[in-house]
Amino acid sequence: MEHFNIEIKARCSNPNFVRKILRQRKAEFLGVDHQIDTYFRMPAGNGRLKLREGDIENELIYYKRNNKKGPKKSDVVIVDQPGKSMKALLDSVLGTAVVVDKRREIYYIKNIKFHLDQVKGLGEFIEIEACNRPIKKGNCNGNGGISKGVLLKQVNEYMKTFGIKKGDLLPNSYSDMLGRKKR
């Protein structure tokens, strides 16, 4: 399924505060997922390709976005349930760049996904993803389109609600951060 979203990633110093607000706003809680994201080598400037293996989310995800702090647009293509053999195939063709091991709490309200992540070797984070389509069963796969301006407003509202400051915002993916730690 192809879509776009406006998203942020930030350090999260108070996940209990975020959980409390999400409960107050009647967010749907999908559960806690132990996820292994395997990022494959891609030519520079061609986006990212990762295979997510979890109990709740199992997807092959290609996305392209600029690394910048604050809300940013991501163009995303997702293949649900790609199968176990996909990892070996992609590793043999592209090679594995980095593996991200995380514990993720997944929530959503209408078209907005919230992730509270504990990433092995990095710490605690929050992600807010406002999808241009309504979310069904945790994925941006409904009908219709929501404008980039509306999505940006939604993300900014939740950043303010959760008390996310500019200094908390991160421009890169977990894979970039782990890759830098290895060097």
Give the topology.
Elements: E1 2-11, H1 15-24, E2 28-40, E3 48-53, E4 59-65, E5 72-80, H2 85-94, E6 96-109, E7 112-119, E8 123-131, E9 135-136, E10 139-140, H3 148-162, H4 174-182
Antiparallel strand pairs: 1-5, 1-8, 2-3, 2-6, 3-4, 4-5, 6-7, 7-8, 9-10
What does this entry look like structurally?
The protein is an alpha+beta fold and 183 residues long. It has a single domain, classed as Beta Barrel (Hypothetical Protein Pfu-838710-001). It is 24% helix and 44% strand. It is built from four helices and ten strands; from the N terminus they run E-H-E-E-E-E-H-E-E-E-E-E-H-H. Strands 1-5-4-3-2-6-7-8 form an eight-stranded antiparallel β-barrel, surrounded by four helices. The model has no long low-confidence stretch (mean pLDDT 92).
N-end to C-end Cα span? 35 Å
Number of separate structural domains: 1
The main sheet comes to: 8 strands, antiparallel, barrel
CATH architecture annotation? Beta Barrel
* CATH domain topology: Hypothetical Protein Pfu-838710-001
Mean pLDDT level: 92
Structural class, please? Answer: alpha+beta
Described by the principal axes of the CA atoms, the overall outline is: globular
Number of strands: 10
Count of discrete alpha- or pi-helical segments spanning 4 or more residues: 4
